[in-house]
Amino acid sequence: DYFDALSEAGPVEQDQEASILAVSAPVTAELDSGSSYVATPHSRMRISATIDFEHPRIGRCYGSYDVDAGFADEIARARTFGFEADVEELNGRGLALGASLKNTIVLDANDIVDNSLRFEDEFLRHKVGDIVGDLALLSRRLTAHVVAERPSHEGNIELARAIRTHLRRSGPPVADITRLMTFLPHRYPMLLVDRVIDFDPGRGIVGLKNVTINEPFFQGHFPGHPIMPGVLIVEAMAQCGGLLLMDHVEEPEDKVVYFMTMDNVKFRKPVVPGDTLVFELSVNSMKRQVCKLSGRGLVDGQVVAEADFMARIMDR
Questions:
Q1: I need a surface site. Which of 145, 163, 202, 288 has the fewest CB within 10 A?
Q2: In CATH, what number is assigned to the domain containing residue 50?
Q3: Catalytic residues, which ones?
Q4: Is residue 199 part of a domain?
């Protein structure tokens, strides 16, 4: 019904060109649950997917679809599906309350309950539709060939994050190291941000650190087994946060950012030479000269560290 309403409304010409995200190199994402993805360059949006359910009516199924040309006929009409055994639990949690046999395929232990399929592979087509919807979180039109094994909402979102990280890293920097040095008082070997690749004033920042074997801390941490110290990962994250705050003040060359607290610090994976460490920080609140931020560090789209900060802007 929603798709029909949108189709009836029709497109409206805009003043600007459509914003296109073109994947320029393979991007991967993988979850412990078994979901895995590869997005490769393509002239259009194409999705190839495989699902695998231990149910006699679904089983293992593969298909490939041209989203741009065939969405209305091949994907939009595919309904969601669920299992009869889960209905009571879902309803008890306030979920699936609007489900009916008109908009949902319900399965018992062996077959479909009082319904028929619109497509022989409708289960798969619905999962492809989920990928399309979740990748819309990128807020731009994507051109890529996405190959998905056992896709899930969690996996789709992780792929969107990986694509966003890839595009940020491959695009031109917002600020390079020379410009960063005009805002940060740090210098070698304590300047731990190489460039800023995305910046939303007063809201968020994305910075990047190329971790090389030449970093001085690898001489002692650890010989023969180099790992970036966790405290320096957090320090680099904090420097990105400092850049975000310095944009908020006049005459930043006369100011300095002091961090007051660090909470919920977690280290998920080691960072080693050759990694590109991407920091994403967002502002939670800002009152006068005091700010609360949340940040995380990622390598190849996987979270390696996260922390919450409170900082204050002071005169030098």
A1: 288
A2: 3.30.1700.10
A3: 153, 221
A4: yes
Q: How big is the chain by its Cα radius of gyration, in Å? A: 24
Query: How many CB atoms within 10 Å of residue 107?
Result: 21
Question: Does residue 4 sit within a domain?
Answer: no
Read off the tokens for 316.
């030098």
Residue pLDDT, tens place only, 104-138 = 999 999 999 989 999 999 999 999 999 999 999 88
Return the DSSP state at 112.
B
Residue 249 has pLDDT above 80, yes or no: no
Position 156 in a domain: yes
Residues 254 and 298 reside in one and the same domain: yes
Domain limits for position 242: 177-315
CA nearest to 173, candidates 206, 211, 210: 206
Contacts of 113 (CB under 8 A, 6+ apart): 84, 101, 106, 107
Confidence of residue 173 (pLDDT cuts 50, 70, 90): low
Q: Is residue 30 located within the same domain as residue 142? A: yes
Q: Is residue 67 part of a domain?
A: yes
